[in-house]
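Q: How would the C-alpha cells look for this protein?
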Amino acid sequence: PETAYLNLVFQPLRTSAGYVDGIMVLVNDVTELARSGKQLQESERKFRLVVSHSPIAMPILRGPELRIEFANKAILNDVWFRKAHDVKGKELLDAFPELSEQGFAQILRQVFETATRYQEKERSIHIEGSPCTCIDFECTPLLNTDGTVFDILFTVRDVSERMIAKKRTGENEERLRIVIEASGLGTWELTLKTNEFSYSAKYLATFGLTERLSHAELLQFIHPEDLPGRERAFRKALTTGWLHYTSRLIWRDKSIHWIEAHGKVVYDEAGQPFKMIGASRDITDEKLYQQSLRESEE
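A: Here is the predicted structure in C-alpha cell form.
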C-alpha cells in the first residue's frame, strides 16, 4: 500500500429539462507532482533554517515590490537594528525609505528583472538608527523552473570597522610618508629568497641616479673596500633582526659619497627571515664636515 494523490473534478450531468440525473467524475493521478511539491517544501524549509541561523546577514525579498518575506537574526540585529515584526511583510522601501535615495532599489529591481546576480564591495549605506555605515553585499535571484525570479536573497556583510581601520591605516601611512620625505630618507625592501628589490626615488637619488636599476647593479656603486663590511652587517642582521652599516658610493662621475643604512628583518609564519625593509640616507655632508674638523685639529 502507498499514499496516492489525486485531482478530482465532479461534473453534474443534466437532462434537457435541467435536472441532474448523474455525475461525471474526472480523476487525474498527480502523485509524482505532489511528492515533488512536498520535496520542494522540505527543501525550502531546510534552506530557510540554514539562512535563519547563518551568521551572515540575509533577508529574502519577494516580487518586484521587494517585500521582506524573511529576515534572519544577523540582518535584524547587526545591520537593520529592527525587530522581525517591524519589517516582515513590508516592502523594503516602506520599511527603509532612506535606501531609495542610495541606489539599492534600482539594483534590486534590476536583479529581479534580469535574473542576474549582482555584488558590490565597500558600499556606503545609511540606515536610520543603525551604526552600520559600509557593507559588502550580494543579490542572488532565486528562480522558478521556468527561469523567472520569485525571490531575491540579499547577503550583507557589515565592513564598517574594516573601513575605519583602513582609513586609519591610510592616515598613518600618509603621516609616515610626510616624515620620511621631510627627513630625506630613501626607503627600500629586499625579498631575501628571490633577491627582488624595490625602492623609492629618494633612495635612488643617493646613488646619483634617476633611472631604475636592479639590486645587483646598485651594489656595483659601493666602494670595493666597503663591500666586506656591508656583507658582515647583512649576515649579522639575519641573526639579530636589525641592520646597520655605513659605506662609500662611487658615483658615475667618480665622486665619493657616503650613505648610512638601517633595516629590519621580517619573518614568515615559520619564523624564517623572508624580507628586509629599511631606509638609507646620504651622510656625505656629515662625513666631509667631520673630515674638515680632523684636518683643522691636525
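The chain is about 40% helix and 30% strand.

The longest strand covers residues 256-267.

Upvote if useful.
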